[in-house]
Amino acid sequence: MNQYQLMKLAKRVGLYALIAVVMVYAIFPFYYAVITSLKPSSELFRVDFWLSSVDVSNYVQIFTQKSFVRAIFNSILISVSVVVIALLLGITASYALGRVRFRGRATVMLTILGVSMFPQVAVLSGLFEVIRALNLYNNPGGLILSYTIFTLPFTVWVLTTFMRQLPMELEEAAIMDGATPWVTITKVFLPLMWPAMATTGLLAFIAAWNEFLFALTFTLTDDQRTVPVAIALISGGSQHELPWGPIMAASVTVTVPLVILVMIFQRRIVSGLTAGAVKG
Amino acid sequence: MSTSATDSAPREGRTAKAGYRGTKVRRQRVRAAWTYLTPMLVALALVAGWPLLRTFYLSLTDASLSDTAGAAFIGFENYLVYDDGAWYGLLTDPVWWNAVWNTVYFSVVSVSLEVVFGIVVALLLNAEFKGRMLVRAAVLIPWAIPTIVSAKMWAWMLNDQFGIINHLLMALGLIDAPLAWTADADLSMWAVIMVDVWKTIPFVALLVLAALQMLPKDCFEAAEVDGIHPVKVFFRVTLPLITPALLVAVIFRLLDALRVFDVIYVLTSNSTSTMTMSIYARQQLVEFQDVGYGSAASTMLFLIIALAVVVYLYLGRRQLGVDQ
């Protein structure tokens, strides 16, 4: 083997070593949470890298807890509703912004972009009033309403990007046939927008599922909480008596569906994220 | 653009009508556009516009959480007031300025780290190797995990007595005694940064990767043929070319970091050594029930972020495609 080949081999080995490091760094914390969640409480405080035996008592404990099951139900209800509303309002708005040239369009686009960058805390007191006035405090409806602030701008933005990429000829043909804009949206664009809608819907779902500040502030009782709040509020007798086994079991439970979704839709998510951040 | 639709029509009989039809179609489309925008704009006004205005207004009152409607207007007293020979208000509160400093420190340090590591991971994912798709999917995992969950996972790993991080560091001989990562004032900010960096590297890496994959291949091949050192190629060719995407990623992350709340709330709760502007504002609003004062803090945070957004829009207008 000459020097050139040796260099090449070394580079190859270095590359794979670096990839291994990145993989371990990315995956290990989640892996460790899974291991912890499957340990009996007697072994919890011994550091292990592998699992010697599987014990599901932590999972039994959280799933027999009514408030946690209720929290999962609340999270699903809220996230799905948020996605449906964001997509309904987003698809029509993105048609207007993506396909029609009209005065004030740039202003609307900038407004949407501005809203998506809002610090949530800045609207907290005002939104609190709105939610109380609509009688939605400590109610999933209040969270569905408030989550619109971050899911809607994002959905409109990404769908507009996709909408713009559809060929002009399709719409021209529809106009030639005398189709109204509504027919054009529902009959021509909608069938083509499904992949984009699945992507944005999924990203909106993840955002709603993970939201914490509003969920913490606009709910009061255990049975109205979402899972992130439920997990954050699991507590033991003191700082040092936190029930780490059940906390990790709950954490793994709310994360596994997301990880599976992300694995399946990985390519789409990447394109959706980049469309949301950089155009083109 | 709709006029050209009829102009290019294959049947010649239509061209005579094109002007009339074009404007009618155009007017119909513009009207439809506004109709379709209205529900979205109303929704945004309800959840963003109005609440923001109310927050501004409440910051000028002495409102408390139980009674926001009957609050008295007190002008800028929540911000700054001179009373009996001394200045009072948010702008004289050392705890607030500590929160501002913490936020800036957290944002600058974590975004810098995320960008450096994000570029490294992106370059790695851009290289050709077996199982690239699998690695790309695996790298996304931290991004998919809810912030609360990642904060809890790391809180467990960073646990002072039973945490695996202390265990590893002691096994490697780097420390003699376990460290109280989340309780020690000197360490807790680093613990928070560690978790945030771990969670958001995938986001930066993906944006950079997308930019890398759009670069023309031939100039890299030319550089390789000419035997130019890869590091030089990176700084002279790659980095300038991906700068626009990098700029977008940086400002997106910066805006996120400036409003950080959940990771810090869960990891170190209300500790002053990690308290950020969001934590401070929410504490005043909800825990101390002082809506007027808390709104003043929220408004200040909003102004700081608005400034960053203006800079962002100014710098990023072309990349965002608003002008098209």
UniProtKB/TrEMBL annotation, chain A:
Membrane topology value: Multi-pass membrane protein
Keywords: Cell membrane, Membrane, Transmembrane, Transmembrane helix, Transport
Family matches, as Gene3D superfamilies: MetI-like (1.10.3720.10)
Xref: InterPro entries: BP-dep_ABC_trans_perm (IPR050901), MetI-like (IPR000515), MetI-like_sf (IPR035906)
Source species, domain of life: Bacteria
Parts of the chain that traverse the membrane: 12-34, 76-97, 109-131, 143-163, 184-209, 244-265
Subcellular localization: Cell membrane
Domain ABC transmembrane type-1: 72-265
Family statement: Belongs to the binding-protein-dependent transport system permease family. MalFG subfamily.
PANTHER family xref list: INNER MEMBRANE ABC TRANSPORTER PERMEASE PROTEIN YCJP, MALTOSE TRANSPORT SYSTEM PERMEASE-RELATED
The name this protein goes by in its record: Sugar ABC transporter permease
Protein's organism: Halomonas halophila
Automatic annotation (TrEMBL), chain B:
Coiled-coil regions, chain positions: none
Domain ABC transmembrane type-1, first and last residues per copy: 100-314
TM region positions: 33-53, 104-125, 137-158, 190-213, 233-255, 293-315
Membrane topology, from the record: Multi-pass membrane protein
Subcellular location: Cell membrane
Record InterPro entries: MetI-like (IPR000515), MetI-like_sf (IPR035906)
Name of the protein in question: ABC transporter permease
Species in which this protein is naturally found: Halomonas halophila
